[in-house]
Backbone:
């Protein structure tokens, strides 16, 4: 599959990248994105290939789910990247890395990541948006867990992602 081209921002535009594993995209991620695109001239969703996580969905599947979820959003593009997030931000000409914060438990990890990134690339800021309360308890893992046990997930993911999760688990046998 051919990945979308990286859109480089011109110096007059203030853009951000929104990195993550997105396995899969949730309504929580979309909420952050919708709010962030009002703050920046553009936001590039950046699917990390180096995220230390074993994914349920392949890179291509995650990309397709994200492209579908954002197809009607102006100012939003989707990319896949390898290596350091800050290097990718530079490549895109982005001024900021965007992250969502859900609860205190996110803080320590995000703080460490932001400080590491700042040390490597002092010119790139990490911007945190607080997740809205209705999404504060969801994560991609929790949604996958619920879906694997036939739990209702329609409040947490867009319909096409719900469909993809149901299909994924229908093809798997659950080991007890
Ligand atoms: N609403 C709901 N859930 C949210 C959320 C929100 N607003 N924001 C985050 N989450 C959840 C995600 O669903 C995900 O859940 P999971 O752990 O169950 O999968 C979790 O919070 C965090 O995932 P995500 O935002 O996708 O980030 P990540 O931790 O998977 O990815 C990278 C982190 C990609 C930014 C990081 O690994 C990275 O930068 N990698 C590239 C290499 C690099 O530069 N490393 C740093 C060097 S110091």
Residues:
């Amino acid at each position: 599959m051919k990945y979308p081209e990286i859109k480089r921002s011109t110096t007059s535009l203030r853009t951000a990248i929104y990195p993550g594993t997105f396995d899969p995209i949730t309504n929580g991620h979309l909420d952050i994105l919708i709010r962030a695109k009002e703050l920046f001239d553009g936001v590039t969703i950046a699917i990390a290939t180096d995220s230390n996580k074993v994914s349920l969905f392949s890179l291509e599947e995650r990309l397709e789910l994200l492209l579908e979820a954002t197809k009607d959003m102006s100012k939003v593009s989707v990319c896949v990247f390898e290596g350091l997030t800050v290097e990718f931000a530079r490549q895109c000409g982005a001024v900021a890395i965007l992250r969502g914060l859900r609860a205190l438990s996110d803080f320590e990890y995000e703080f460490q990541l932001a400080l590491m990134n700042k040390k490597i690339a002092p010119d790139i800021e990490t911007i945190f948006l607080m997740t809205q309360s209705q999404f504060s308890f969801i994560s991609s893992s929790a949604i996958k867990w619920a879906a694997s046990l036939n739990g209702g997930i329609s409040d947490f993911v867009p319909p096409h992602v719900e469909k993809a999760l149901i299909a994924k688990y229908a093809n798997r046998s659950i080991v007890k």
User: Anything to note?
Assistant: The CA atoms of residues 149 and 174 lie 9 Å apart. Residues 19-23, 26, 28-29, 32, 48, 50-53, 84-85, 100, 102, 113, 116-117, 131, 135, 138-141 surround coenzyme A (CB under 6 Å). The radius of gyration is 16 Å.
